[in-house]
Amino acid sequence: GQRLVEEGGDSVQAGGSLRLSCGASGYPNCNSDMSWYRQRPGRVREFVARLGGDGIPRYADSVKGRFTISRGVANLTVHLDMSYLNPDDTAMYFCQSIRCGIWGQGTQVTVSP
Any residues with CB less than 8 A from the CB of 86 and at least 6 apart, and which? Predict the structure, then answer.
């Protein structure tokens, strides 16, 4: 069946950068309207960014100017480029295909002071 696979999570120091990637294995149409969410320790899952079919990126206020969502080559993946990371960005990051109604398993990002 359809599934999303995220990768790129890692441990970095504050001020560092990471790139997360997500793709729908075998189902490229699922990548046409994708979102990233995150769940910080002790908190509910929250919206981070979205790139829909209109090509217009949307961001949570907390990440505007630091995170960039984009599509990869041949629209097979969606990336989340994160810069100026701080400890408050520590979370499990999930991608969601709105079109296909599926979530990935998540990838952990840990930012140390």
Answer: 14, 15, 111
